[in-house]
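Dear H.,

Thanks for agreeing to be a second pair of eyes. The structure we're designing against is below in token form, covering all 457 positions.
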């Protein structure tokens, strides 16, 4: 998220919070695709993470991008922390450890998404290469320790850094040493939202397995294929969830709001200041708990929208739905993730078939997949099958969904080509992580410096 909102509209009741989610409902012709991806900046001279300050730092890259693109500058306490595209709706932001993120604009199809991604990566190279800076597309830093990681000057990250060790053992690793790719998709109405949330949550471990790409930590194998996904399992269980409520009969916009109201907040922003309110739930806030703690203590819609951005279920609901289960990877896989989910979710018939695939999975089975997939990925057992079997079924459905979209789209735009990296994975049965481990044990001879050339953008 590039910018915390400052919408001062007062909240009259819980129904206002429900209504703001429902405002996301769109007709299918209005459905769009928004893709976000993160990447690690490194110094090409010594393969160390780039700091914020300095001639080859994050600040210099952001200011170079500002000059190249002419986008609007975003600051926090006088420090540049991002850029916003005033025309296309995209943004560039920085994560706690300097991960450089593109939040793409809402686009019509995946061809546009891939052009956007390729243009961005070319622009970043144009700015960063003369500085001696490269960018790495992996789900977790392969060689850097937590102590190696720089800290970005964003006020919300200071609050989170202090809070994370109180609520889990891996939150700081999540913040500073992981990168992801995600896609944001639309819904027609509440029933469509419910169906997409359920299918997305059930199949999120399958996507995690297909895109598993974080098998190293501090220079050696870490025992996982998606260590990024494993880290999320003990980050902050108040807000990180497989969201079992989504599978209850009464799941709705209101049910999601009620869940979010009882999640502790991180901060309240007033003017340029971030007030640390960790431990206070949004429901407490609405009931006056902060009236003697912060100025202007009446909750606003800006406060709620900021709070929504700090909830971390595997599939997150805002005015759209965020699919959050994949490790960062090469540019082809950045485009493959939206292709996978668009194929599954944007055709009603395919969405129904995907629901039929997962509807009898129990809460315990979904939880077991979420726990085991980070370690064994496609080889994870499920009933009398494996996740690879499930992945092949899901990819086939997705491909058919994209085929149907091509028939429906004006001009017959076919997006199936972007599924090719995923099809290659399920055909071989080998995740990107396993392929990288094979290189590590073979041609790389245990030398992970090769990752900074073969997996750089």
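And this is the sequence the design step returned. I haven't edited it by hand at all.
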């Amino acid at each position: 998220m590039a910018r915390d909102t400052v919408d001062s509209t007062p909240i009259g009741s819980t129904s206002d919070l429900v209504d703001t989610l429902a405002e996301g409902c769109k007709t299918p012709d209005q459905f769009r695709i928004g893709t976000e991806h993160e990447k690690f900046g490194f110094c090409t001279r010594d393969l160390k993470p780039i700091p914020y300050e300095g001639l080859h730092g994050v600040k210099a890259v952001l200011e170079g991008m500002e000059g190249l693109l002419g986008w609007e500058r975003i600051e926090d306490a006088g420090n540049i922390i991002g850029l916003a595209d005033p025309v296309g709706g995209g943004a560039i932001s920085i994560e706690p450890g300097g991960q450089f993120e593109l939040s793409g604009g809402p686009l019509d199809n995946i061809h546009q998404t891939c052009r956007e991604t390729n243009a961005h990566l070319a622009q970043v190279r144009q700015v960063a290469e003369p500085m001696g800076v490269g960018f790495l597309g992996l789900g977790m830093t392969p060689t850097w320790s937590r102590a190696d990681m720089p800290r970005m000057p964003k006020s919300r990250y200071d609050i989170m850094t202090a809070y994370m060790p109180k609520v889990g053992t891996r939150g700081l690793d999540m913040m500073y040493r992981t990168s992801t790719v995600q896609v944001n998709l639309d819904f027609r109405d509440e029933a469509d939202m419910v169906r997409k949330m359920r299918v997305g949550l059930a199949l999120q471990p399958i996507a995690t397995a297909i895109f598993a790409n974080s098998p190293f930590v501090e220079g050696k194998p870490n025992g996982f294929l998606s260590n990024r996904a494993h880290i999320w399992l003990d980050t902050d269980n108040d807000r990180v969830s497989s969201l079992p409520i989504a599978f209850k009969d009464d799941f709705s916009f209101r049910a999601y709001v009620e869940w979010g109201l009882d999640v502790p907040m991180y901060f309240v922003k007033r003017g340029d200041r971030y007030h640390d309110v960790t431990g206070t739930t949004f429901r407490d806030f609405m009931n006056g708990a902060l009236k003697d703690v912060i100025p202007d203590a009446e909750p606003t819609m800006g406060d709620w929208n900021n709070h929504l951005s700090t909830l971390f279920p595997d599939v997150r609901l805002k005015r759209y739905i965020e699919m959050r289960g994949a490790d960062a990877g090469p540019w082809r896989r950045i485009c493959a993730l939206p292709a996978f989910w668009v194929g599954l979710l944007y055709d009603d018939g395919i969405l129904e078939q995907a629901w039929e695939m997962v509807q009898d999975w129990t809460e315990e089975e979904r939880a077991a997949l979420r726990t085991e997939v980070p370690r064994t990925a496609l080889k994870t057992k499920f009933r009398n099958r494996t996740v690879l079997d499930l992945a092949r079924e899901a990819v086939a459905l997705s491909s058919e969904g994209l085929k149907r979209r091509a028939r429906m789209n004006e001009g017959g735009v076919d997006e199936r080509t972007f599924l090719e990296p995923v099809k290659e994975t399920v055909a071989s049965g080998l995740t990107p992580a396993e392929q990288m481990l094979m290189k590590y044990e073979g041609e790389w001879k245990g030398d992970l410096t090769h990752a900074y050339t073969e997996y750089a953008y």
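Two observations from my side: The longest strand covers residues 33-43. The chain has 17 helices and 17 strands.

Warmly,
E.
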